[in-house]
């Protein structure tokens, strides 16, 4: 795979996930480091499986979400559901292009990865 295409995909994925972190007011230094760790890991992953380059945004979003859950708690919280306890959105498709944040409880697509600010009014 051409290195430019890989780097472009990784930079784009980083920017989209960072935009969602900023929208949720959680883009502090330690969390930005989690994004960088995810990008580094996925760089290796795409080098091993070049056909997966179009999946890298969703995978990085999931990686950051998993790392945040382990260290800080659920993210991003669902802005759609008003009843019941807070719950996180999921990334769908889990392995595919054009990833979106979805609420599996309400079975709705909330926003494309990178566009949470529009939904959160920020």
Quick take:
By secondary structure, this protein is mainly α. The chain contains 4 helices and 3 strands, in the order αααβββα. It has a 3-stranded antiparallel beta sheet.
Secondary structure elements and pairings:
Elements: H1 3-23, H2 29-48, H3 56-71, E1 90-92, E2 100-103, E3 108-112, H4 116-120
Antiparallel strand pairs: 1-2, 2-3
Q: Would you give an account of this structure?
A:
Helices cover 51% and strands 10% of the residues. It has 122 residues and is mostly helical. A hairpin with a 4-residue loop joins strand 2 and strand 3. It is globular and about 45 Å long. The mean pLDDT is 92.
Order of helix and strand elements from N to C terminus: HHHEEEH
- Give the uncertain stretches in residue-range form: none
Q: In terms of quaternary structure, what is this?
A: single chain
Q: What is the spatial order of strands in the main beta sheet?
A: 1-2-3
Fraction of helical residues: 40-55%
Structural class: mainly alpha
Q: What is the mean predicted local confidence, pLDDT?
A: 92
* Shape category: globular
How big is the Rg?
14 Å
How far apart are the first and last residues' alpha carbons, in Å?
37 Å
User: Count of DSSP helices?
Assistant: 4
How many strands, which pairing sense, and closed or not: the largest β-sheet?
3 strands, antiparallel
Beta-strand content bin: 5-15%
Find the count of extended strands (DSSP E, 2+ residues): 3
């Amino acid at each position: 795979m051409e290195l430019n295409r890989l780097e472009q995909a990784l930079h784009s994925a980083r920017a989209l996930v960072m935009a969602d972190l900023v929208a949720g007011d959680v883009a502090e230094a330690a969390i930005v480091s989690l994004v960088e760790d995810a990008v580094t890991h996925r760089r290796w992953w795409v080098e091993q499986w070049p056909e997966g380059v179009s999946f890298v945004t969703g995978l990085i979003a999931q990686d950051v979400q998993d790392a945040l859950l382990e260290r800080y708690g659920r993210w991003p919280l669902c802005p759609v559901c008003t009843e019941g306890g807070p719950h996180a959105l999921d990334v769908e498709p889990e392995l595919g292009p054009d990833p979106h944040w979805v609420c599996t409880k309400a079975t709705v697509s909330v926003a494309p990865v990178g566009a949470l600010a529009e939904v959160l009014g920020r």
